[in-house]
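Handout, page 2. Input:
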Amino acid sequence: MRALWLENQKLSFRTDVPKPEAPMIRTLFAGICNTDIELTRGYYPFRGIPGHEFVGELNGKRVVGEINAVCHACEACRNGRPTHCERRTVLGIKDRNGAFAEYLTLPLENLHVIPDSIETEEAVFIEPLAAALEIQEQVAISADDRVLVVGHGKLGRLVARTLALTGCNLTVASRGAVVPEKHFDVAIECSGNPEGFEIARRAVRPRGTIVMKSTYAGGLTMNASSLVVDEISLIGSRCGPFDKAIDLLAAKRVEVRDLIDAIYPLDDALTAFEHAQRKGALKVLLKCRQ
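Output:
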């Protein structure tokens, strides 16, 4: 099987990777995420096929998949926290080969069939769109709230587009922007850079909320005293509701096609990764079918 392989933080393209066990999902398209890039910088000691944003085909149906494969038996699973399963594997991130390959496998319970109203390339965005929607699962946001999104890349734009549906007073700032201090009720860090976190910290009002959507390979230094004195709530935010993401795309309420920067064949995956790391690059897709 052809696949992109990550080992010791180095990528290589291989043609000798064994096909996965059933259910064997034929990968149609896969998207390169900042988390994939951070894996090459040591975010997590992963060895194998990266990639977790995908649309595939199983038994003649187009499917996407939730990335956490869980045990259903540990304390976290029994208490309704399956995405934090103590024995979970995570597609292309932790102990499970991912989507930058001709085929992948996930438990059937993780899969969602895609309606005809969603184009195949658009379906790649369901996983990151669900992650963006997770913010509203964690924090109640209304039209009265002043909300800041730090980061204007592919994730920041998806987050902003989902938040715009609430009617909130929304501001999107790129890294390095000057924004009013202690002004926003909620600040969401999507830049993937410590400088972006500092912008969010300064911008949020006392007893406001900072939501962290970025993963970092390195450490993050912060003014912890300011969080204590201003009684700031700091929330980590990861995976989200696939059903709501699918509904939004099917209803054409969120635009995603304009976020596609380029599409490369799987054989050119190394070039695609280089493109994805260019300054200002948006979503780079791999076309995995021949």
